[in-house]
Amino acid sequence: MKRVEPAVPAGSTTCRDGRFHLPHLCMKQRFDLSLYLVTDPEMTARRGLVETVAAAIAGGVTIVQLRQKDGPARRLVETGRALHALLAPRRIPLIVNDRIDVAQAIGAEGAHVGQDDLPPAAARALLGPHAIIGLSITDERQLATLDGSVDYVGLGPLFPTGTKTDAAPALGEEKFAAFRRRLPLPVVAIGGITIANAARAIAAGADGVAVVSAICAVPDPRAAARALRAAVDAALAARSARR
Ligand code: TZP
Ligand code: MG
């Protein structure tokens, strides 16, 4: 009997998981949490979200999350595709907050889920083995939600923040450091991180810092990203010299 080969989408490759993917999704992209930009549509409205990310890339962000809590899905996909076109040639992963469907539509490298979103295992099942899956954790009881589907943890808020109105209370450095020691995964600190305190997040055990307002709400996002990256790189180098 004649074997019928499945249709292969144009430009795709067969991965080890036996599925067809666009080549950039075939292997889990290595990710660097050092300077993690989380976008905010309102803070970037004047300059433009894509323009703000372009400036932040020039300043040295290493990973970008598209985060938008409301608005039409169609617009979110358009924005995500524009971001992906900017980021993918530079091998900077694009992570979509909450919306696994949007991550799929964009062909993003991964998704970030919180405690009220799809469980990480469901996100993994939908996005496949090569996706980068992040999980937000704000207190120790949530450690149970961590499973083998998660690639990195967003831990915070480390410092008080005005950006997320429903954020949990700030952990502070001492609690953050104790909590971080219990996490067997890369950790990015989030919440109230600025150029002035980024090094303290690394000293408390973070592998990188995630920022919204410190890049999205400043007049010069490129200079801000550059200064944040310099502070993080110096703190990471100092930490590894101590080890
Ligand atoms: N999750 C915990 S705090 C926070 C999110 C999305 C907001 C961080 O914003 P900022 O402006 O960097 O403090
Ligand atoms: Mg969420």
Task: Compose a concise summary of this entry.
The chain has 243 residues and is of the alpha/beta class. The protein has 8 helices and 10 strands.
DSSP strand tally = 10
Named CATH architecture:
Alpha-Beta Barrel
How would you sum up the global shape? globular
Biggest sheet strand order reads 3-4-5-6-7-8-9-10
Helix/strand-derived category reads alpha/beta
CATH class: Alpha Beta
Q: Whole-number average pLDDT? A: 91
CATH topology: TIM Barrel
The description of the largest β-sheet is:
8 strands, parallel, barrel
> Radius of gyration in whole Å, from Cα?
18 Å
Describe the structure.
There is one protein chain. The protein has 243 residues and is α/β, with parallel strands linked by helices. It has a single domain (31-158, 168-242), classed as TIM Barrel (Alpha-Beta Barrel), CATH 3.20.20.70. Helix content is 34%, strand content 16%. The protein has 8 helices and 10 strands. The chain has helices at residues 49-59, 73-87, 100-106, 120-127, 172-181, 198-203, 213-216, 221-242, and strands at residues 13-14, 20-21, 35-38, 63-66, 94-97, 110-113, 132-137, 152-155, 187-190, 208-211. The strands form 2 sheets. Strands 3-4-5-6-7-8-9-10 form an 8-stranded parallel β-barrel, surrounded by 4 helices. The chain has a two-stranded antiparallel sheet with strand order 1-2. It is globular. The structure holds 4-methyl-5-hydroxyethylthiazole phosphate and magnesium ion. Magnesium ion is lined by residues 97-98, 113-114, 117.
